[in-house]
Design a protein that fits this description.
Layout (H helix, E strand, L loop, with lengths): L15 H4 L2 H17 L3 H18 L3 H6 L5 H14 L4 E5 L2 E4 H26 L3 H11 L10 H31 L9 H7 L1 H24 L18 H25 L1
Antiparallel strand pairs: 1-2
Helix pairs in contact: 2-6, 2-7, 2-11, 3-6, 3-11, 5-6, 7-8, 8-10
Length: 268
């Protein structure tokens, strides 16, 4: 299950999405996330679904590979749906024990589930089609105006990029530790949810030790190569906008305008 998490991984292939400037993909991801919280009707979600499906198709990343990442949020998804289903006041539809399911609760629960699914797939699409180096450069360029306020833009972008890159590495390490402990008789599958949660506790110590060791090795490797961030640092491949990047901006902001405009017409 841990190997099914796709966030932070890079899927290497040749597509228009892969060749886009990382700044375009970062802005597109932010705009897509904003659109999911702006729209509150089915026409808006249908537009988001069509837009996301087209982007996945153009990216040439197998849809099954992206769907694998959904397994990691099933618990969060079920929790959000249950809470919205039973705790939203409104017109009663059914009663389960002392809890009441409302018409408004069903609507909000379904929309919340769709929103979470789209959010995970959209975010994964950005990391799957962007290398960590390009992601760092894109973040640094987008946050460049913050340098006026003496913000450590390069360092922040580097930390965010390293954090994303470490997600699949730490998940792979956790999987190895779990298999090693299962071979020694540990049981992570049977028992109640609380028992299984307690059974995961022995994983924390070796995982933290491994994480700190990897962080120390990375820091030493960067120092050994005389790495220095910040001002006056040159780029091997400077980011330059091309025609396809401008088309990308127009497409994503056109999508946002369509969501807002058609959503308001539908509500009217």
């Amino acid at each position: 299950m841990l190997r099914d998490i796709t966030l932070g991984q890079y899927y290497q292939t040749d597509s228009v999405i892969h060749r886009l400037d990382p700044r375009v993909k970062l802005v597109a991801t932010i705009v897509f996330i904003i659109s999911l919280f702006v729209v509150d009707n089915w026409i808006g979600y249908c537009i988001a679904a069509v837009f996301l499906a087209c982007m996945v198709k153009i990216s040439k990343v197998p849809f099954r590979f992206m769907v694998k990442g959904m397994k990691s949020i099933v618990f969060l998804l079920v929790l959000a749906v249950v809470f919205n289903l039973f705790l939203t006041p409104g017109e009663a539809v059914a009663t389960v024990w002392k809890l009441t399911i409302t018409k408004e609760g069903i609507r909000i629960a379904v929309m919340m589930a769709v929103r979470l699914v789209f959010l995970i797939i959209g975010s994964s699409l950005m990391t799957l089609t962007t290398t960590p180096n390009n992601l760092t450069d894109g973040m640094e360029k987008l946050m460049a105006p913050l340098k006026i306020f003496k913000a450590p833009v390069h360092e922040v972008a580097m930390m965010m990029s390293i954090a994303l890159r470490f997600i699949p590495i730490l998940l792979e390490e956790t999987d190895k530790i779990m298999k090693a402990q299962i071979a020694r008789g540990a049981d992570f599958e049977s028992g109640s949810l609380i028992k299984r949660a307690k059974g995961m506790a022995p994983l924390l110590v070796p995982l933290f030790i491994s994480a700190f060791r990897r962080a120390n090795d990375l820091a030493m490797a960067m120092e050994a190569r005389c790495y220095r961030g910040g001002e006056h640092r040159t780029k091997m491949k400077p980011l330059v906008y091309h025609a396809r990047d401008r088309v990308g901006y127009v497409t994503v902001f056109g999508y946002l305008a369509a969501c807002i405009f058609l959503g308001r017409i539908w509500n009217f």
